[in-house]
Design goal:
With 168 residues, this protein is of the alpha+beta class. It is built from three helices and nine strands, in the order αββααβββββββ. The N terminus is likely disordered.
């Protein structure tokens, strides 16, 4: 059973990667983001893909000192996982990866921000809340996809209902 669950998690992660790549290339929509949540034993992986314009206020290469400062402050803010997500129990942040969408000098007019967090949670998690809605007011919808040892699913999250919840 455990081996099957691990295979399912690996399959889901691979699916998330391909889905995320497709989302970035073909489904960039302002005001909408994507969230992937994967659970395996006491480990939790969380990945957000968000339009840079909604997070930074622009999505082109920074042109002014003020825009460069906004990028720097926002990326530093996102190192604190509680700016994007919380759990209903105490979890320890193990790793974070906040990618600067402006690091590559591309001519894309639609940049996405990718943020990944890894957590270790000693107690069972039954609720994941997106706190992003509290400060990123132009994000109206997050498409959440998740797989836990008990359930999997897809749900649209909004400021009015910013969480995924499942029975333990």
């Amino acid at each position: 059973m455990i081996k099957a669950a691990k295979l399912a998690v690996i399959g889901f992660i691979v699916g998330c990667v391909f889905s995320a790549q497709g989302h970035q290339q073909h489904h960039h929509s302002h005001g909408e983001g994507v969230l992937f949540v994967v659970h395996d034993q006491d480990k939790w992986q969380v990945k957000f893909i968000l339009p840079a314009g909604d997070i930074f206020g622009f999505e082109h290469q920074p042109e002014t000192a003020l825009q460069k400062q906004v990028i720097k402050k926002t990326l530093a803010k996102l190192e604190n996982s509680k700016q994007l997500v919380t759990f209903n129990t105490q979890c320890e942040l193990i790793d974070s990866n906040v990618e600067n969408p402006f690091a590559q000098h591309t001519h894309h007019s639609h940049n996405d921000l990718e943020v990944e967090y890894s957590f270790s949670c000693e107690k069972s998690v039954s609720k994941v809340t997106v706190t992003l809605f509290e400060w990123a007011k132009t994000i109206s919808v997050i498409e959440a996809q998740w797989i836990t040892e008990q359930a999997q699913g897809i749900e649209e999250l909004t400021a009015a209902k910013p969480y995924i919840e499942w029975p333990l």
